[in-house]
Design a protein that fits this description.
about 375 residues, alpha/beta, Metallo-beta-lactamase, Chain A, Metallo-beta-lactamase domain-containing protein, RibonucZ/Hydroxyglut_hydro, Metallo-B-lactamas
Length: about 375
Amino acid sequence: MIDLPDLPDVKGEWLEELIFLGTGTSAQVPSIDCITSSLKQCKTCTDAMNTGSPNRRGCTSAVVVGAPRDRPQERSTILIDCGKSFYSSAIEQFPKYGLRRIDAVLLTHGHADAILGLDDLRSWTMQGCVQNHVDIYLTQECMQTVQGTFPYLVDTRLVTGGGDVGTLRWHIINAQSPFSVGRHNISVTPLPVEHGFIGPERRPFECLGFRIDSLSYVSDCHRIPPATYDRMAGSQVVVLDALNMYRHPSHFSIPQAITAMLKLAVRPNPPVLALFVDMTHRIEYRTTEAQLQKLIEALRTFRTTLPADVPENWWAEIWDADANEKFSELHLRHDNAKVSCTPYPAREVPGMHLAIDGQRIKFGQ
């Protein structure tokens, strides 16, 4: 077990809770290669074998729970992504946090770590045991992948065997338009991002994040377009892809994620908290979290030495994400004398932490 870090207070009008079902990649952690090899000594995977380890990671997925403050009886539960480890995570986290019904499922994209748990939704709908159906919200492109993977879930006339499959209702969404989900019409704004490339022409593969109330959730991206940054502006909490320390063609590195948060934080109503997800076994929680907190403290301290009116990239003198990707740990560009004074939480540097499977973030009013 581990003591979770103290987090800043965050607020929402509808949001009450954010619960992480998974914070890892499609490969998950631990790696079977690491834990069965007599030659490799992977600190992350070795620790992940222990009960309660913060290094154990299922496919990135989350549940958001909320209700209108004046109508608490309209509480709704929204699942974001339903990947390979969804059911095992649900077995552990749903009873722990008093979750049962799923009012909506939002799919970010059609990769295995986001959709391969859809068949397990039968456990919610067979004979109406928990609910009669589950509503799924996805783009047309994602729908094509789902239909090819689970044809019998899309067209139940294709069911074979005993015919016991989930009852799912499909809702095609437009990546450029807000939509409403669930029984109580919760407003969701899509956050289009780029997540790798397709084909020899290297066309960017579009993936979605989602803005729900004061939360922006972007779990898979290598680039966030300017228009999407605009949609994220004003969020209290940002969940962000942070694969490892090095540049990757379809994911943010941790240095890129840090810079993305600094870019958001120079806008009006900056975020209070960032939580990094989609991490590989190359990221050992305790070591990297400690490095991250040291870096945040140094950035905050440096910011206090600068005038109020500074360039948008005020951090460039001491922090360079591209340069940091050449190293295996987080560090400043140089030891600057300006970072020797007492730090304070400058608003341009939000809190940033690595997320943990099973972690719950509570939202106040």
